[in-house]
Design goal:
By secondary structure, this protein is an alpha/beta fold. The chain folds into 3 domains: about 10-125, Gyrase A, domain 2; about 135-210 and about 390-440, Four Helix Bundle (Hemerythrin (Met), subunit A), CATH 1.20.120; about 220-385, 3-Layer(aba) Sandwich (Rossmann fold), CATH 3.40.50.300. It has 15 helices and 13 strands. The protein has helices at about 30-35, 95-105, 115-125, 130-140, 145-155, 155-180, 190-210, 215-220, 235-245, 285-300, 320-330, 370-385, 395-415, 420-440, 445-450, and strands at about 10-15, 20-30, 40, 55-60, 65-75, 85-90, 110, 225-230, 260-265, 270-275, 305-310, 335-345, 355-360. A 7-stranded mixed β-sheet has the order 3-4-5-6-2-1-7. Strands 9-10-8-11-12-13 form a 6-stranded mixed β-sheet, with helices on both faces. β1 (about 10-15) and β2 (about 20-30) form a beta hairpin. α13 runs antiparallel to α14. The protein is flat, with a radius of gyration of 29 Å.
Length: about 450
């Protein structure tokens, strides 16, 4: 993708391809009104167009009526892109859409690249880069938590925090640079305690913002939740019960599941990626089973939540001990939530519940709602502890972390009460540059192309 040439007028459909009642086509750029007047009638509509003016117009090609459309005009800079814009609401016929696009291109427009409208909004100062990225996050939000996060970023909550941190760093840098320019040595010596106090006021919110990425990745990607246990304990049945439909094959034959089955589910506005794994057992000569067991063990190592399913109707066996051994060996107690579940309670209703476990029946759905609530409870607590905006972008996290490293090096100089002004200034400038990259104040064309190429066409 090439960086947008603001002198060009661009056009693209803003609705998905295919048949539909209504489709939206967006035409934006310096010559948007002039180009639209070539195929939208009557032409007098385009004499002194006003922002948010809406008209019922005819699309004509060589005197032939193509469609009757509703068009809304936006004069620069009062549009999404900051350029003159015409939004055309036509009938959702692929033929009509192709014809309108062709008429616009024939009269001087060019087809928009993915994300080019939002790129123009960024380049025209309608939003900073974090807000532009939030537009794409909003489009792809699949849960209320990811939606809320995208809205927060779009409203500029992350930007405000970063700008406040930048302001504090700039004040420190100014105090350093004024001393660098003080050839007459008229300035007072640095008050290390005062500088240290001001620096800590910067590093604390900077660290809080960077640390929020640990939660932000859950918002964006969901909690990796794996179902493990011995063969025929009811893992696949549990996946089906949680989903509410039969996704995994369930039979009485032990070891039906030999590979992983993955599905995303939203509970209480939070995304979970559930994975049904192959049954773990002590010995097998079957190479397919061996590979399935190895994959199941990998999920023990990497999951955010682990649901250990045991058969309530049977006594513990050697295979159960093998599952316990693998959990003890690989489970990270600090990062992974372990939920022990006894399934098939309908086959042994008299057996008393064991402490620290949840008793369910996938056949009768008994206990499934309790399990869902248990899965959600801890995650709601995690999000509830975060009072400020949460970082969900790896790019933002890396820049924040790099900035924090530079501030810590500056802080170390203050603590040692030995400061080289030139080096101190470089640390502060590097910290500022990292934060400026997040906002899009100092970005390369390659980075911008990479970000906006992930957008859909028409946005």
């Amino acid at each position: 993708m090439f960086i947008s040439d603001l002198s060009k007028t661009i056009i693209a459909p803003s609705t998905p391809p295919g048949f539909g009642a209504i489709s939206i086509i967006r035409l934006s750029g310096k010559n948007a009104f002039a180009i639209a007047s070539k195929f939208l009638y009557p032409k007098k509509t385009f004499i002194n167009p006003k922002t948010k003016q809406t008209h019922i117009l005819k699309v004509m090609e060589n005197g032939k009526l193509i469609d009757q459309v509703v068009s809304t005009f936006y004069k620069a800079p009062k549009s999404y892109t900051g350029d003159n814009t015409v939004e055309i609401f036509c009938h959702g016929s692929p033929f009509i859409i192709r014809t309108i696009l062709a008429l616009a291109i024939k009269n001087g427009a060019k087809e928009a690249a993915p994300g080019e409208f939002t790129m123009r909004a960024f380049m025209n100062g309608k939003m900073d880069l974090t807000q532009a990225e939030a537009v794409n996050d909003l489009i792809h939000s699949e849960s209320s938590s990811s939606h809320s996060s995208a809205i927060s970023h779009l409203r500029g909550e992350i930007s405000v925090q970063i700008k406040n941190i930048k302001s504090g760093i700039l004040n420190l840098l100014s105090a350093i640079e004024v001393r660098l320019d003080d050839s007459e040595e008229e300035m007072a010596e640095i008050d290390f305690n005062d500088f240290l106090r001001k620096t800590k006021k910067i590093t604390l919110p900077l660290k809080t913002l960077a640390d929020s990425f640990e939660k932000g990745r859950f918002i964006k990607n969901g909690f990796k939740t794996s179902i493990i246990g011995i063969p025929n304990s009811g893992k696949s049945s549990l996946l089906n019960a949680l989903l509410g439909y039969n996704r995994a094959i369930v039979t009485k034959i032990s070891g039906t599941t030999t590979d992983t089955i993955e599905e995303k589910i939203n509970f209480s506005g939070i995304s979970f990626i559930f994975t049904d794994t192959a049954g773990i057992k002590t010995n097998t000569k079957n190479p397919i089973e061996k590979e399935g067991i190895l994959r199941a063990i990998d999920f023990i190592k990497t999951s955010d939540i682990l649901i250990w399913v045991m058969d309530y109707s049977k006594k513990p066996c050697a295979n159960e001990k093998e599952v316990a051994r693998q959990i003890k060996k690989y489970l990270d107690d600090k990062k992974t939530q372990l939920i022990k579940v006894f399934n098939k309670s309908d086959l042994n209703p008299e057996r008393p519940a064991e402490k620290g476990t949840l008793t369910i029946s996938c056949k009768t759905n008994s206990g499934i709602d309790k399990l869902k609530k248990l899965i959600v409870k801890r995650q709601e607590t995690i999000f509830g502890e975060q009072s400020s905006a949460i970082v969900t972008s790896m790019r933002h996290f890396q820049a924040l972390n790099n900035s924090l490293v530079e501030m810590k090096l500056f802080e170390k100089m203050l603590k040692n009460k030995k400061i080289r002004l030139e080096l101190a200034a470089e640390h502060l400038k590097s910290a500022l540059n990292e934060l400026s990259d997040i906002l899009g104040e100092t970005n390369s064309d390659e980075l911008l192309s990479n970000i906006f190429s992930k957008f859909c066409v028409g946005k």
